[in-house]
Amino acid sequence: MSKFVETTYTNKKEILKFPDHYVNLAITVSDEGVVANGEGKKIVPAGTILGGGFLASETVHAVKTNGAGAEGVLFNDTDVTYGPASGAALIHGFIALDKLPEAPTAEAITALKQITFLK
């Protein structure tokens, strides 16, 4: 007997204010503390503020943070249902505040020196 997984694809959520000016870094997104949705999927949404030390070491998994330890913003929705997954962290660019799942704190804005949040 075969196992089938049904996946529904939708358009990418755009978090950028100016989509032609940004820099991303390849990261591994941690599944730690991510709660499954109604479909049983663990999705870390685009626009989640990340930290955990991934800028200093490629082996460190990026984790959700919204404070002084912020290092980047998750560029695309990332499925961590089956464990840590590859993703991209925006480390330089212009982000539309209304596109984020959670507003950045003053500490996160200060820590993210090369990211500008715009209304």
Oligomeric composition of the shown chains: single chain
Number of strands: 8
Q: What distance separates the N and C termini?
A: 52 Å
Strand content: 25-35%
Structural classification: mainly beta
Mean pLDDT: 93
- What overall form do the CA principal axes indicate? globular
Helix content: under 10%
Low-confidence parts: none
The total of helices stands at 1
Tell me the series of helices and strands, N- to C-terminal.
EEEEEEEHE
Describe this structure in words.
With 119 residues, the chain is mostly beta strands. The chain has 1 helix and 8 strands, in the order E-E-E-E-E-E-E-H-E. The protein has one helix at residues 106-111, and strands spanning 22-29, 43-44, 49-51, 63-64, 70-74, 78-79, 85-96, 115-118. Strand 7, helix 1 and strand 8 (115-118) form a beta-alpha-beta unit. The chain is globular. The mean pLDDT is 93.
